[in-house]
Amino acid sequence: MVSHDLLKRFSAGFQRFQKTWYCPENNIYEDLRVGQHPYALVIACSDSRVDPVLLLDATPGDLFVIRNVANLVPPYEPDSHHHGVSAALEYAVRHLHIGHIMVMGHAKCGGFTSLLEASHSDDEFLNIWMNLACRAKAEVDSSLPGADPDERQRACEMWGVRFSLDNLMGYPWIKSAVDGGELLLHGLYFDMGSGELLYFDAESETYVPMVNACASGTSSVKKR
What is the pTM of this model? Predict the structure, then answer.
């Protein structure tokens, strides 16, 4: 049962949300209740520390978000099974006509830790899901055989973003939109240790700084 204190915290949080977005001078839902027109789809991790709406300082209606363990995009498999990620991709691209898809990876991802360490062997679903990232692990095993665990983890997370971008191009309606100049794909990587945001440059096949690391001690946000 949810504790009374937790309900009070959520209630207070929702009241702050109301004051921000339902106030008479800035009632953003006057328009949003008619329909949504997000400018980007973000595929992000379920990790509680990497909410893309907060990280990108987005407002309601800006982003269509898919979140799962390790921000993975499965391959295109049109069969009778249940495909939550693929269904959301299809809705965003074919119905919302989204113009940008961003795959956002991050440091210290628990999903990639479990993949590299095989630390959750008894899990029913996690291991099968993380098998989607086996190509990333194989790339790291091949290119960084003697690297320390932190370096292997970071490299695997970054390769995961790249292979998810590759998988996106396997969806025919995504490829068609990209080839027609109607859709752009982006790879991002958030280093939560430094506060740096990296962008995957497909031409050079490297990650480049998009937003530099934070200077220590500059935050004005109080911990709750």
Answer: 0.92
